[in-house]
């Protein structure tokens, strides 16, 4: 996949490769050691941080960036078969 600016992700709709709408990119988590995007968030990160169960909320409201297949007008991700 071509390089992309993080700012270009914000607000884009996230859709699985099977057509299921997941939500919109509200925030991102960056791995600064490797310099890559780790996850895209469906809610603002401060909402997750303030929740009582941060790990559960993070799992429920994020998509690992390794699932991203393409970014154009929308973000296309591979279908995740495990239910959260």
Question: What features would you describe in this structure?
Answer:
This protein has 84 residues and is of the alpha+beta class. It has one domain (9-77): Roll (SH3 type barrels), CATH 2.30.30. It is built from two helices and seven strands; from the N terminus they run E-E-E-E-H-H-E-E-E. It has helices spanning 45-50, 54-60; strands at residues 13-16, 21-24, 27-31, 36-41, 62-64, 68-71, 74-77. The strands form two sheets. The protein has a four-stranded mixed β-sheet, with no helix packed on it. Strands 3-4-5 form a three-stranded antiparallel β-sheet. The protein is globular and about 35 Å long. The mean pLDDT is 90.
Question: Could you give a quick summary of the protein structure above?
Answer:
By secondary structure, this protein is an alpha+beta fold. It has helices at about 45-50, 55-60, and strands at about 15, 20-25, 25-30, 35-40, 60-65, 70, 75.
